[in-house]
Amino acid sequence: MSTTSSTSQETIVALATSPGANGAIAVIRLSGPDALLICNKVFKGKDLLKQESHTIHFGTIRDGEQIIDEVLVSLFIAPNSYTKENVVEISTHNSKYIIERVLSLLIRHGARAAKAGEFTLRAFLNGGLDLSQAEAVADLIASNSASSHQIAMQQMRGGFSNQLKQLREDLVHFASLIELELDFSEEDVEFANRDQLRVLIMKIHQVIAKLIRSFEQGNVLKNGVPVVIAGKPNVGKSTLLNALLNEERAIVSDIAGTTRDTIEDEINIHGVTFRFIDTAGIRHTEDVVEAIGVERTMAKMKQARLIIYLFDPTQDAIADVKQQIQEVEALNIPFVTIINKSDLLSEEQRASFAELSPIYISAKQQLGIEELKDELLNQVNLGNINTDDVIVTNIRHLEALQLTKQGLEKVLDGIDNPITSDFLAMDIRQALYHLGEITGTVTTDDLLENIFSKFCIGK
Ligand code: GDP
């Protein structure tokens, strides 16, 4: 499919609500020049062509004389709609049979079944959204925590694009001044003050670098903080995971080393998602199956942004604990030291571990779990995300930003080791090109196809 060839001459139709969901109502959406006309052919009630935009009408959908459903029809007349085209939303009763009948009826009367993401693609092509906003629509729909929702909402409302748009305009201004110099090349004039240009490029460079840095934070917020629960076999890792998840998901057993495979799961603490990776524990072992587990544990620990390291004070002497801590420290990843099985701990034993400033918990009796959760939030330091900050969460944006940054560095280099105006102009245009890729000022069919094919049909 060539994405951009979905000419807006065609009127498209799809189920906008989730297929197979249990709700009372389903919404079927039409978009395109003939949306009202097509709906009017099967709708009995008021003449839709004579109604105002943003009005709702009760009536029936009929196939010939047969009534298929009683519906509500909402009208959005171009350009005042999501796609900027005529849009009709038909709310039917949520029956698979009714939905199929209504869809095929509308198709029979001239609509075409929409492709994945085609409504949002049209919104983009018609200027209703820029590309990063369109992508945020997908993120918003997929968001499952307060923080991922906030980021997507912020991006959809244009936070990201606004910031880039201004920078881009300033840079375009300079590029055109430099290009003007080319017309006067005989006279050796400088319309674009090089010092001012350097200041502007450095300013843009700073903003871009900040956006690039925000990616790590953004990624964590969007996908969750990867946390590894580690420690020797039988220290209570599975029990802790269960306590945190409040469900019996990992296999708990008295036999050392039974949690052989890795299990991933998530919890949400004050809007931040933590992705737990339960592990087989670090233990030097000859057992082959177990060895795979140990290798995986090391690999997982390296992927983690935070490690919860568990000790069993009834098994481990302080010297052993200290040695394990050293091993974990070598990974250079933040970690929390946890003394588990505190229910079995005497005051004296407790005192012997005090110098490690651990958190004491009992995974089995669910003691100290809230304290641990607070510490997790503390460690990732994301508790108070400033939602006004623009955060990059999209790998495509990150790549474009990195290329823009490289481009800007080339321009700076060209100012400092003077190159001719035509080369400088070319370098600036190159940086602009990558900047434009983010918001969709510059697009290719491949890029659009790639983005919109990831949407579901009806979005
Ligand atoms: P893993 O190998 O580290 O995953 O350890 P498990 O979670 O399978 O626990 C090993 C054993 O320790 C099980 O018998 C658990 O019931 C027990 N256990 C775990 N946490 C606690 C705790 O806080 N207190 C006590 N008394 N026993 C615990």
From TrEMBL:
Cofactor field: K(+)
Domain TrmE-type G: from-to ranges: 224-381
Binding site for K(+): 234, 253, 255, 258
Keyword 4Fe-4S: no
Binding residues annotated for GTP, in chain numbering: 234-239, 253-259, 278-281
GO cellular component: cytosol
Comment on bound cofactor: Binds 1 potassium ion per subunit.
Location relative to the cell: Cytoplasm
Pfam family, one: TrmE_N
Molecular functions (GO terms): GTP binding; GTPase activity; identical protein binding; metal ion binding
Function text: Exhibits a very high intrinsic GTPase hydrolysis rate. Involved in the addition of a carboxymethylaminomethyl (cmnm) group at the wobble position (U34) of certain tRNAs, forming tRNA-cmnm(5)s(2)U34.
NCBIfam families membership: mnmE_trmE_thdF, PRK05291.1-3, small_GTP
Subunit structure: Homodimer. Heterotetramer of two MnmE and two MnmG subunits.
Assigned protein family: Belongs to the TRAFAC class TrmE-Era-EngA-EngB-Septin-like GTPase superfamily. TrmE GTPase family.
Protein name (record): tRNA modification GTPase MnmE
Protein source organism: Sphingobacterium humi
